[in-house]
């Protein structure tokens, strides 16, 4: 390099260093996204599961008596929800803490949002498709579940509650279920 | 505005002297603002996103 670099050389050197820095930043950010997806299996869902939205309420997995929290044989819990203009059914979900919970949800009319506050659950419910998410709630607490995808004039009032309770309390609720209902919820 | 070639050459030389000293001000501005943005991204990633748990 010349002892007295020309202005052109200086500009070129600075530009090259800045370009390398920016490229490095992009590589690090993309690398973090890839690591999150591959190592923790945490990425936008890629499974496609279809369902008929017109007959949700009459047959299949999302009939009204099957909506809510269902304890499974392996100790996990499956929560089934239907979203429609402008409510979630059931409007109050109860889940145990420290146990794997699988949410299965769909919409019966338009696209709705699916978000549970203070968690990373954040997605959409499309008519004709079933959205599935699996997670574990660390501790008991109350969360809101607003619809965050504009779905019409009642969109701002569309939200549900999620109550995370102690596992013991949840099992007690499961044992005390009245004979005519087979799914748990905190709807009053 | 007419300038004779000597004036132009002198101005070019003065410009060259300034450019030769490098764009340290621009680097400082761009560098600090980029650092702030990337820093906030990392703070959110580690302090908000990861603590909220893994969804599969």
From TrEMBL, chain A:
Keywords: Copper, Membrane, Metal-binding, Transmembrane, Transmembrane helix. This is Cytochrome C oxidase subunit II. It comes from the Bacteria. SUPFAM superfamilies: Cupredoxins. PANTHER family: CYTOCHROME C OXIDASE SUBUNIT II, NITROUS-OXIDE REDUCTASE. The chain crosses the membrane at residues 18-38. GO terms for cellular component: membrane; periplasmic space. Residues 74-176 form the Cytochrome oxidase subunit II copper A binding domain. The keyword ATP-binding does not apply. It is found in: Periplasm. It holds the Pfam family COX2. Coiled coil: none annotated. The keyword Membrane applies. GO terms for molecular function: copper ion binding; cytochrome-c oxidase activity.
